[in-house]
Structures are given as C-alpha cells and as structure tokens.
Amino acid sequence: MHFHGLDQLEARGRRVLLRGDLNVPMENGTVTDRTRLEKLCPTIRALHDKGARIIICSHFGSPKGKPVAALSLRPVAEALQNVLGLPVHFAGACVGPAAQQAACALADGDVLLLENTRFDPREETNDPAFARELAALADFYVSDAFSAAHRAHASTEGVAHLLPAYAGRLMQVELDGLDAVLGHPRHPVAAVVGGCKVASKLGLLGNLVDRVDVLVLGGAMANTFLAAKGVNVGCSIQEPDMHRAACEILARAAKTGCEVMLPLDVVVAGRLAAAVPSHAVLVDQVPADAMILDLGPATMDALLVGLAGWRSLVWNGPLGAFETPPFDAATFAFAHGVAQATQAGHLTSVAGGGDTVAALNRAGVANQLTYVSTAGGAFLEWLEGRVLPGVAALECSAA
Fold first, then answer.
1. How do residues 79-95 score in pLDDT, each as one tens digit?
2. What does 112-157 look like in DSSP terms, one character per residue?
3. What CATH homologous superfamily does 175-383 map to?
4. Going by CATH, does the domain composed of 6-167 fall within 3.40.50.1260?
5. Residue 354 annotated to the active site
6. Are domains 6-167 and 175-383 of this chain identical in fold?
7. How far apart, in Å, are the Cα atoms of 340 and each of 281, 304, 337, 350, 368?
8. Which of 299, 291, 284 is nearest to 330 (CA)?
9. Residue 228: what pLDDT?
10. Which of 15, 36, 39, 50 is catalytic?
11. Per annotation, catalytic residue among 34, 197, 362, 386
12. Staple partner for 15: which of 109, 138, 166, 220, CB 3.0–4.6 Å?
C-alpha cells in the first residue's frame, strides 16, 4: 500500500481541503462526545504549522440531500474551536459563492469549516460536478476520515482524483495499523472474532482464514460453529441457518492451514442477568436448559498460551456477554493479556468494532494496544478484504 502523507506536503500559502469525520453525537445543539474532534486535531495542527489555509468538510447525519437545521455543522465549528485552541470560521454552504468567498478570505494557518456536505444531494451519488466544485476550493486534498473511506462519495473519493491527495495523521495511523496485522505482519498471525451473528461476518471470516495462522471464535458466534459440528449448546443463542456456512468456513480453514480455536469449556447459566448463578462445564456437557454466556477457564488458559506465541493480532468482537458481569471475565482477561504482550513488544495488536472498543475501554486497556480503530463499517470492510474507495483514491493519487 503506497500513499502520500502530510510530511510530503508543502502547503504554505496554499488552500487544503481536509475531509474529516465530524459526525459527532449531539443533543440540543451541543456536542456530547468530542472524541472525533480530538482525533482530527493533529492533522489540523500539522497543516496549521505548515502555513496551509485549511478548509474542512464533513458529513453530519443523514439529511437526505437537503438542508436540515438540526444537522448543521455550525455548532460543531464552535466545539472544534474549543478543542483545537484556534479560531474556526464557518461557511454556511459547502460549495458555491458563499464557500468560495470564505475560502478565498483565508490567511495562512486559518481554519474554515464548510457546511454539511450531505445537504447537497450530489454528495452521496459521487456526482462529478459536485466533486469539481469542492476541488475548486483548494489546491490539495487531505483525507483524514478512514471511518468514511468505504463510501464512494464526492468528498471521500471523487475529489481525491481531482487534486493531489494525501493521508492525514489519523488516516495514516489507521492504515499503518491495519497493514501491520494483515498486510505485512509478523507471524504467527491470529484473528479473534466474537459477537453474535455469523451471517454478518461471513465475508470477514472467509477472508481471514486465507490470511491468518490462527482464527479464534468466541461469543455467540462460537455457539453456531459448535452446533454445526453437532455439539449440543443447550438453549444458547445460535444460528441454525448458518450451520452449513460454518462448516464451509471450517473446511476452508483446513485447506489453507489456518488453525480454528473453538471453546473447550464454557460458562453457562439459566438466563442472562447480573449475578445469576453460573458455572463452567466442558463444551460437550452444556445442560439442555442452560445458555453459554462466556468462555471457560480451560479455554482461557489455551488462549493465553497461544497469545504468548503470536506476533500479530486483529480482534473484532467480545468473547462473551461482557456487558453483564460475571460474563465479562474472559473478554477482560484476554484484553489484559493482549495489552501486556503489546506493551512488552511481543505483539502487534489491532482491535476494532463498537463492542470491542467498549470492552477495551471498560477493561482500561484501550490505550495499551498498538491501535484501536473506531471506524466501524470501514474497519469491517477492510477485514473482509474489500477495496475501500477512499483509500484506493489515495493510492491512485500517489501512483
């Protein structure tokens, strides 16, 4: 993977169109979580220090191609200014005379935020004319929205073909992290996949068994694989219509030499509730009236032994019902093991997906992995081996 980064950009006195992801949580016109603003700031500051005239664009919500007052980015401009510590000007349009006038008025180091790109119906259709209008505002394009890179929209893909395109700091960290575990990894490479539904992760599983040395299955997803192999999983959540697909994944893994690790023992209970009576049983001894809700101690011992030998890890999905104690034990124990191996320098670790990030935060180790992706759909599509239009456009520009 080859793309240009900010260190290669000479932008003093030049206008730079920066595509960020400012799709932040908001209540009553107030930003309630500034994480995405904070993650964009290193790129803005780098461009500011280079003397660039910075024009930020982003989508916000789903206004369906027309202005919606509640989805204006105007309140985000104020929040971004507070986080950034620099004045942030706002243009009431993303293209047209108002945007052009605001862009032309910028001095070196100034920051301008354009109005919601999805107020224009041409954004989501990747209309070439709209992409040209965006490109006309600037001399260079910088993408720092990996979370939107799986969408071929005008501001994420179209404009990148019209201006010299560069990856921002966050985009570069994300791409470098993913490349470290699936592009050019240290072996052995392990993938841990949990969560509920096999159906939603078929593409991901199919791609991983071709690329990793070990595939660990946890959560309710493991129940489906166990049931497909004829194991009685009691009244556990599982997908009977996915048994055939699960067997095909196992057969494919056998052909590629990918070791698939399924639970050896599990923690069961009569229902999912906090502090409900629970106990560990061998995986082939699950009572008919019990639910599998977490991995058992023997399985965790095997995972931690494996972890000591792995050199690269990608993790998507919790190992049990971690939101409800005591069924968070396996997920948290594994999270701490991954963090320790990463900090010791033995492991390159990348994790992503909403539940996984939440589990890592609750375990208090999210900042101890090599990289934790909050990109959601883009992260999953990358794991599935799909081409992300926003990333492909950066590679095309570099070439």
1. 999 999 999 999 999 99
2. EE---GGGSTTTTTT-HHHHHHHHTT-SEEEE--GGGTTS--IIII
3. Phosphoglycerate kinase, N-terminal domain (3.40.50.1260)
4. yes
5. yes
6. yes
7. 28, 11, 5, 14, 8
8. 299
9. 96
10. 36
11. 197
12. 138
The stretch 60-69 carries a mean pLDDT of 94
Torsion of CA 184, 330, 284, 281, to 10 degrees: 160
The catalytically annotated residue of 29, 183, 354, 364 is 354
Using the predicted structure, report yes or no on whether residue 196 has a pLDDT greater than 90: no
User: Per-residue confidence at 1, pLDDT binned at 50, 70, 90?
Assistant: low
Give per-residue pLDDT as tens, 266-322: 999 999 999 899 999 999 999 999 999 999 999 999 999 999 999 999 999 999 999
* Token pair in block for residue 144: 């720092």
Q: Look up 85 and say whether it is catalytic.
A: no
Distance CA 31, CA 54 (A): 22
Distance, C-alpha 1 to centroid of its chain: 18
Give residue limits of the domains in the chain.
6-167, 175-383
CA distances from 287 to 110, 211, 234, 280, 327 (A): 66, 36, 6, 11, 18
